[in-house]
Amino acid sequence: MVETDRVAVKPLSKRKSRAGLGFARGGPARADCRALPPAIVPAVNLVLLMFLTLVAAAAVIAALLYRPLRRQRAVREVLDAADALEARLRTARAEIEAVAGDEGRDPVGDAMREMLRQRLWLRDHGRQASLNQLGEVRASIDAARGRIEQQLVQIEQARLN
Q1: Do 74 and 134 touch, CB atoms closer than 8 A?
Q2: Residue 35 domain-assigned (yes or no)
Q3: 83 found inside a domain
């Protein structure tokens, strides 16, 4: 050691690199964790199995609860479409009678009867109907509404000419 007036200073020594030898050890890197005791492994497996069973049961319950909600929404949409069509048909009937009077064929009456037929079908078969069948009923109601709108446009054009 080199002495100075105040403090003794140790000379620097060259250190060898320990890269790749592990953290704070002189040997190769090893895992610090110890394996679980053999008695605990079946308990851990049982807990994992119970957890996965619980997750699967929750998924099944969620799927069973979601299906009736889709059906209720589909039935509600069909009924809403039927109500909208009925309101539009009443307006159309008033407009047609104002222009043409009571003479000739009654296209609004035909559409009203078709709508009534669909409502009766929904009442009788709505609970057993598939979502596709409910969608078809909704599509037919929307198509009828489209036909009425076209007829009203034609009536309006005839009135202007």
Answers
A1: yes
A2: no
A3: yes
> 10 lies in a domain?
no
pLDDT digits (tens, 9 = 90+) for 94-120: 877 777 666 666 667 877 888 888 888
Predicted local confidence at residue 155, as pLDDT: 77
Query: Which has the closest alpha carbon to 82: 132, 122, 36, 126?
Result: 122
Residue at 23 is within a domain = no
Instruction: With cut-offs at 50, 70 and 90, classify the pLDDT of residue 128.
Output: confident
Task: Enter the DSSP assignment of 42.
Answer: H
Give the count of domains, the chain: 1
On whether the CB atoms of residues 141 and 118 are closer than 8 A, the answer is yes
Q: Residue 88: which domain range?
A: 74-160
Residue 9, both tokens: 């200073």
Report the 10 Å Cβ neighbour count for 129: 19
